[in-house]
């Protein structure tokens, strides 16, 4: 079955980026001149996703407005001869069909899936965390979708991380000589971690997984964890793959340091500002030695 739907979890509060996120969703913070969430959506659209379901909360209206037409702004730009910019702004609203549902249920990164489950009944779908970026020449989601169309297996994106930070992520253990997940542990200690392969917010799930997630008990921190449901899925005999990111970079944006790293990474991809950015960075390095 073709994958045409995606669920994006955007109900987080962004407390690590306060006060910037006091009145602005963290997913709307800019990476150069596009909000984080637009970069995520562009990756999905490149993968052939047509229906995008945002799982939101009460303070995410700026995000919803971003993916709608702004007729007054577009008209004003056209009146001032800025046709190209008006077209660019208008195109954002036409990238996909956008649906919004409010998150309900226990705290945890599995809850957005259950909140939108009725909209993806009996079909495979992509599940994405709205503050995770994956910078690659070919959309990483597209790579995953193409793999799914060949093998029909559920999967999650993984990338190797330094040993000292494994306690921040879900860490996967693979069956020897394969990319099949044997075990997955949410935020293990350095001593507990079976590998350095961390999962991140790119997944392909289906109805069977939703059924297992519904029966999954709350785990660490009294939260509903996707990792716990994956573990249960595998223990029940299901095959769940780890798709390792190669020739690309997973960039988290949920804290000030990683947000800045992501911004610089995308800025250095821009021919119009790359040289000036490098000159500025080099000068700052010299001044702070």
List the helices and strands and how they pair.
Layout: E1 5-9, E2 30-31, E3 34-35, H1 36-46, E4 51-56, H2 61-66, H3 71-79, H4 83-93, E5 97-102, H5 111-115, E6 125-129, E7 132-136, H6 140-151, E8 154-160, E9 170-174, E10 181-186, E11 197-205, H7 207-214, H8 226-235, E12 240-244, E13 248-252, H9 256-267, H10 274-287
Parallel strand pairs: 1-4, 1-6, 4-5, 8-12
Antiparallel strand pairs: 2-3, 6-11, 7-13, 8-11, 9-10
Helix pairs in contact: 3-4
Provide structural commentary.
The protein is α/β, with parallel strands linked by helices and 289 residues long. It has one domain (5-269): Spore Coat Polysaccharide Biosynthesis Protein SpsA, Chain A, CATH 3.90.550. The protein has helices spanning 36-46, 61-66, 71-79, 83-93, 111-115, 140-151, 207-214, 226-235, 256-267, 274-287, and strands at 5-9, 30-31, 34-35, 51-56, 97-102, 125-129, 132-136, 154-160, 170-174, 181-186, 197-205, 240-244, 248-252. The chain has a seven-stranded mixed beta sheet, with helices on both faces. A two-stranded antiparallel ribbon has the order 2-3. The protein has a two-stranded antiparallel ribbon with strand order 7-13. Strand 2 (30-31) and strand 3 (34-35) form a beta hairpin. The chain starts with a strand and ends with a helix.
């Amino acid at each position: 079955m073709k994958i045409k739907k995606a669920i994006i979890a955007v109900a987080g509060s962004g407390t690590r980026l306060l006060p910037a996120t006091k009145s602005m969703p963290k997913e709307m913070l800019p990476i150069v001149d596009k909000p984080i969430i637009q970069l995520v959506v562009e990756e999905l659209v490149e993968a052939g996703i047509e229906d995008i379901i945002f799982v939101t909360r009460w303070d995410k209206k700026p995000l919803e407005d971003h993916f709608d037409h702004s007729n007054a702004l577009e008209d004003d730009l056209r009146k001032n001869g800025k046709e190209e910019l008006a077209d660019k702004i208008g195109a954002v609203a036409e990238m996909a069909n956008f649906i919004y549902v409010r998150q309900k249920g226990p705290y945890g990164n599995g809850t957005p899936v259950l909140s939108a489950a009725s909209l993806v009944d009996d079909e495979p779908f992509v599940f994405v965390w709205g503050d995770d970026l994956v910078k690659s020449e070919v959309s990483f989601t597209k790579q995953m979708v193409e793999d799914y169309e060949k093998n029909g297996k559920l999967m999650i994106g993984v990338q190797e991380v330094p040993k000292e930070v494994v306690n921040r992520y879900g860490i996967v253990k693979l069956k020897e000589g394969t990319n099949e997940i044997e075990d997955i542990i949410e935020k293990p200690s350095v001593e507990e971690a079976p590998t350095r392969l961390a999962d991140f917010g790119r997944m392909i799930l289906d109805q069977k997984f939703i059924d297992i997630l519904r029966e999954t008990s709350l785990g660490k921190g009294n939260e509903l964890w996707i990792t716990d449901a994956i573990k249960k899925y595998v223990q029940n005999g299901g095959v769940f793959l780890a798709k390792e990111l190669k020739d690309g970079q997973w960039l988290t944006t949920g804290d000030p340091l990683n947000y800045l790293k992501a911004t610089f990474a995308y800025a250095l991809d821009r021919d119009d500002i790359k040289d000036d950015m490098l000159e500025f960075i080099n000068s700052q390095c010299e001044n702070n030695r």
